[in-house]
Amino acid sequence: MITEARVRDIVNALEDPFLHKTLAETGGIEEITMREEQNHVSVKIAIAQTGTPEQLQLQMRIVNSLKEAGVETVGLRFTELSEEKIAQFRGADAGEKDGGLLSPNSETVFLAIASGKGGVGKSTVSVNLAISLARLGKKVGLIDADIYGFSVPDMMGITTRPVVRGEKIIPVERFGVKVISMGFFVDDNAPVIWRGPMLGKMLNSFFKEVEWGDLDYLLLDLPPGTGDVALDVHTMLPHCKEVIVSTPHPTAAFVAARAGAMALQTEHELVGVIENMAYFESKSTGEKEYIFGKGGGDKLADELRTEVLGRLPLQQPDWNEEDFAPSVYAEDHPLGAIYQEIAAKLDTKLSLK
After folding, report:
1. Which keywords describe this protein according to UniProt (predicted)?
2. 349 annotated as a binding-site residue
């Protein structure tokens, strides 16, 4: 039977969906009762606002987390925090942000994922890198800034859309990552026919009108190449870090160098290169076949005076109909383990700066 201390640890680690503080920080747990003979746990929790979709999402996370820890049945009761406590945390949050994500005082690390051309798996890398950072315990957001070719919601198996609370858009959360995408705001598979200034306004709203809360990392899945959206990102985020994704083919690396050169010219800091589709490894023989050639990632890193953060082979993720996420690699999948290594390397590298 799980202990009360363990229940408290599990629930305290989750966030109040409105204050973006952990329940440990808000003192949200008001009561825990346990019936050992039935392996049942009841928890009374205070949050900023009840009777909302966000409460239901938190409720599901609590139930799932406790059941994963061995509890058979879970009972939950929700009440609202006092106005004084809500004001206390909202006031502290406003002071910390001092203007939000784009303010000079923001401590969020912006990490753009770029490529020179399409088809190199940049969005797949963005999604799995964001999830891997979240698995490290980081607070992570992901903007699908590939406004013409948005694909992140489909890749992550997201079927819900953001809700609006007051004047703020609440991002959709999956796998511990808060996500916003142009795909949430257009009809299914409808084309986006916009000019550069309109794209810039939409991108700006992703930063200023979305309730991101307290983030350690905000990743941006940029469009391929060096067009309007990529330029807008470079202009809006002068202190952004950047990772370049390429295949090992020399031509792909040559084209990717343009995106890297643009980053350097706009004073973005290149933190590394990820070589995707580096090889195919036979399950029967273990032999590696370098389908797209070799050496492109190293050559690109040398040219951009940075390092290769990791090499990802060609391999499909495992998924099922119940937990549909066709581009997400599980933590124990061979590629999931490589993504975890890359995320840990990036986190160490960026936390030292």
Report:
1. ATP-binding, Hydrolase, Iron, Iron-sulfur, Metal-binding, Nucleotide-binding
2. no
Q: What is the CA radius of gyration of the chain?
A: 22
CA–CA gap between residue 102 and residue 300 (Å, rounded) = 30
123 annotated to a ligand binding site: yes
Give residue-wise pLDDT tens across range 156-191.
Answer: 999 888 888 877 889 999 999 999 988 887 656 555
Any known ligand binding at 288? no
Query: Which residues have a Cβ under 8 Å from the Cβ of 257 and sit 6 or more positions away?
Result: 116, 300, 303, 304
What stretch of H or E contains 135?
helix 122-135
- Structural domain boundaries in the chain: 4-89, 109-351
119 annotated as belonging to a binding site for a ligand: yes
Q: State the chain's mean pLDDT as an integer.
A: 83
> Is 120 part of any known ligand binding site?
yes
Q: What is the rounded distance in angstroms from the CA atom of residue 53 to the CA atom of residue 125?
A: 30
Dist CA 179 CA 143 (whole Å): 6
Give the whole-angstrom CA distance, residue 95 versus residue 101.
12
DSSP string for 231-285: HHHHHH-TT-EEEEEE-SSHHHHHHHHHHHHHHHHTTPEEEEEEEES--EE-TTT
Paired sense of beta strands 177-181 and 172-174, if any: antiparallel
**CATH class for the domain made up of 4-89:** alpha beta
DSSP string, 44-75: EEEES--SSHHHHHHHHHHHHHHHHTT-SEEE
The gap from C-alpha 24 to its chain's centroid, in whole angstroms, comes to: 23
241 is in an annotated binding site: no
Q: Which pLDDT score is estimated for 267?
A: 63
> Does 106 appear as a known binding residue?
no
Residues 6+ apart with CB under 8 A from 326: 154, 155, 157, 317, 319
May I ask the CATH class of domain 109-351? alpha beta
Q: What is the pLDDT of residue 27?
A: 92
Instruction: Enter the pTM of the model.
Output: 0.68
- How far does Cα 277 stand from its chain's mean position? 22
User: Are 317 and 268 contacting, i.e. CB atoms less than 8 angstroms apart?
Assistant: no
The verdict on whether residue 297 carries a ligand-binding annotation is: no
Low pLDDT (below 70) residues in the chain: 90-100, 102-105, 186-201, 225-235, 238, 251-255, 258-267, 352-353
Neighbours of 338 (CB within 10 A): 20
